[in-house]
Amino acid sequence: LAKRFLGLEKNIWIEFSALAIAHKAVNVGQGFIDYAPPHYFIDLYKETLDDPNILLHQYTRGYGHRRLVDAISNVYSPYFNRKIDPLNEVLITGGAYPSLFNCIHAFVNPGDEVILIEPFFDCYEPMVRSAGGIPRCIALKPKPESTHADCSSSSDWILDKKELESLFNPRTRLILTNTPNNPVGKVFTQEELEHIACLCQKHDVICISDEVYEWIVYDENKKHIRMSTLPNMWERTLTIGSAGKTFSSTGLKLGWTIGPSNLVRGCQIVHQDCVYTCPTISQEVVARCFEYELKRLNSPECYFNYISKELLEKRDKLVQVLKECGMKPVIPDGGYFILADFSEFGDQFQSDADDMKDFKFVRHLTKEKQLATIPVTGFYTADDRHLAENYIRFCFAKKDETLDKAIEILRKLK
Ligand code: PMP
Ligand code: GLN
């Protein structure tokens, strides 16, 4: 193995998805919706397959199928308050994963520092390390009073301004932000994002803004704010989206990066000799899905507007049961995950040199109780892991049947 990948062998999705399958566990761990996508999705898929006018079996434009980049430009331009140039300001990739990879590898030189906010979507750290970058981390800290309550809110998880400022220095190349956040579900406020934006400008840092959960926000008062739309931030922000999240179809494996042409150019260069082009069929289907939604963006029927309504009931149902059984849930403002503090259950599990307490607890739940969840220390770097050893993550984007089975197991835990 090339040296730059040494130390990056472990992966929580590989381990815990296999474990869930091996033990036939109810899977409320991995983040995917296990029920039907929006009603038009299958129809548009079939319609695309039957369309004789498109060469679905051949390569399409390397940086993104023309119909898809046009659709993305048409849908997103109003949200970015500018006309997005479909050919130079959008890059289509094989999901938010490769978008992140392209952005990081396009701009990080060995020794460059990259600021990560913990807990972060786990692949950020290995992507930075394999590029030769050095992660510099700041952890969101739950307000002390919130940790004693039987439940708390993702908005109680706070970024310390002074600590964040202290991480910026002449070696800082990038900061990665993720709002709504996976795994806490925090929706960053305007003030928090403005503070980050201000530091990026002061220190000439690029922001990679992972916004894959952009449409999933529960509180009317906490709107999703795009980093790119803050003053002077378009020039230094790359925004990442995912068709898997947008259309609740993670198997599509399509994502996009939107940003100024000079930065998108860097991502194109990484992409062109690695992937070159993404599957034509998925791109054509996603283009048609966007075109379908474009006609009704402001109506409540638009999937982007009702997905949160559909998920809210599921969130509240799981929160209620977690409270009842003594796992203190952190109620998310966005995304489809809930962190739960399992301190009351975990006495027989302790962190040691090989393994963290939450990993042991999750393995126990999966193997002995057939309930699959995700350990939260997987979203931290080694130095900060202790901060999250009492938390596990649940995904509530599941059909009622799955949630009910999970709830039945949870009720019997105590
Ligand atoms: N970023 C975040 C925050 C995620 O939760 C995920 C998982 N869906 C990804 C990126 C990767 O998304 P994709 O499946 O489109 O590669
Ligand atoms: N993003 C999803 C999650 O956080 C899935 C990640 C994965 O399966 N690799 O659960």
UniProtKB/TrEMBL annotation:
Q: Residue limits of the Aminotransferase class I/classII large domain?
A: 27-409
A Pfam family it matches: Aminotran_1_2
InterPro entries recorded: Aminotransferase_I/II_large, Kynurenine-oxoglutarate_AT, PyrdxlP-dep_Trfase, PyrdxlP-dep_Trfase_major, PyrdxlP-dep_Trfase_small
One cellular component term (GO) for this entry is: mitochondrion
The protein's required cofactors: pyridoxal 5'-phosphate
A GO term for molecular function:
pyridoxal phosphate binding
The pathway noted for it is:
Amino-acid degradation; L-kynurenine degradation; kynurenate from L-kynurenine: step 1/2
Gene3D superfamilies xref list: Aspartate Aminotransferase, domain 1, Type I PLP-dependent aspartate aminotransferase-like (Major domain)
Coiled-coil positions are: none
| GO BP term (any one) | L-kynurenine catabolic process
Q: Keywords assigned by UniProt? A: Aminotransferase, Pyridoxal phosphate, Transferase
Q: Could you describe the subunit structure of this protein? A: Homodimer.
Q: Which family does it belong to?
A: Belongs to the class-I pyridoxal-phosphate-dependent aminotransferase family.
Q: What is this protein called?
A: Aminotransferase class I/classII large domain-containing protein
This protein's species is Rotaria socialis
